Amino acid sequence: MVAFGGPAAHIAIMQHEVIEKRKWMSDQHYLDLIGITSLVPGPNSTEMVMHCGKERGGSVGLFVAGLSFILPAVAITLVMAVLYQSYGDLPQVAPWIYGIKVGVIALILSAVYKLAKKAVKNWLLGLVACLAVVAGLFGLNEILIILSAGILNLGMKQFKFMPSFIFPLTILGDATVSSSGTMTNLKLFLIFLKMGSVLFGSGYLLFAYMDTELVQGLGWITRDQLAEAIAIGNITPGPVLSTATYVGYELNGFPGAALATIGIFLPSFIIIMIISPFIPKLRNSKTARSLINGINVGALAMMLVVTYKLGFEMLIDWKSITIFGLATLTMLLFPKVNIFLFVTGCSIVGFLLQLTPF
Question: Model-level pTM greater than 0.70?
C-alpha cells in the first residue's frame, strides 16, 4: 500500500523490511536474488517479493507474498479506472488530465535514462541498443527485436563480433502483429499472458509492449488511452503492471480487468516456481547474462521508440511543449522527486494553461 516510486523503490523497501528489520536472509543472498530476477522474464520488484515469500514460507509463502503485493495496487487501479471512465471526459475533469498525459512523456524518458545507465555496460550493448531503436522506428515487431537484441549481444560476446548476428534484426520487416481484430475475452487474456511471459526487467517496459500489441497491432486502444494508463500506473502504489487492470477495464469492464490482471501476473508466479531449484546455476551463467543484457537494452530501445511516438502525437502546440519542458526540467533538477507530486504538478500546470484564451 505504500510502495510508491517504481521497482528500485520497491526493492529498497523490501531490503529494509526483510533484511534490516526482520533479518530473514543475508545481504548477499538478497543481492543474489536481485541478480536472478534480471535473468528471467517478469517484473523485477514483483518477482523479488515472490522470492522473499518463498524463502520464508515455501510455495505457500510465494503466493501469499505475491498476492499481498499485487492485490492492493490492482484494487486501487480498478477504482481509478471506474472513476476515470465515468468522469474523465467531463469538461470539469478533462483539463486536469491534460497535463498528466504530456508529463508522462518526460517521466518515461527519465526512467529510460536511469535504466540505460545500468543496462548499457559497454559499447557493444550501445550498438545493440542503437540497432534496436532503428528497427523499432521502421515498425518491425517489438518482441522479436528484443529477442534479437539478446541473441546479437550473445553472439558478439561469444565470437568477439560477428556481423552475421545482425541477421535476426533485419528479417522482421513483415513480422508485425496482425492488424485490427475482434476483441474476445480469450484473446484479451492471451495477449496479456504473452506480455507477462516475455517482459524483462522493469514493469515500465510494459508500456512499449502495449503500444505494439494493443495500439499498433490490434487497434484496441489509442495512444491517448495508453498515456492515461501510464499515468495511472505511476500514481498508484505497488507494481506498475497493475496498469494492465486499467487497460483491461477500458476494453471490457470488470471481466476485462480480471483477465488482463491474471494474464500479466500469472507467468511470474510460474517462473519463480520453476527456476527456484536452478538459482545457483543461473546466477553464475555468463551465457545467460550476455543474453539478458542484450534483451534489456533492446527493451529500453523500444521504450524510447514508444516515447518518441507519444511525443509526436501529443506535443502539438505551445501549451503541450511548455508542460513537457517544465516536466523534463523537474526530472533533471529533482531526479528523486515523488512521482505522485510530479504528476499532481503536471495536472495543475495543464489546468492553468487550459484556462488561457489563446
Answer: no
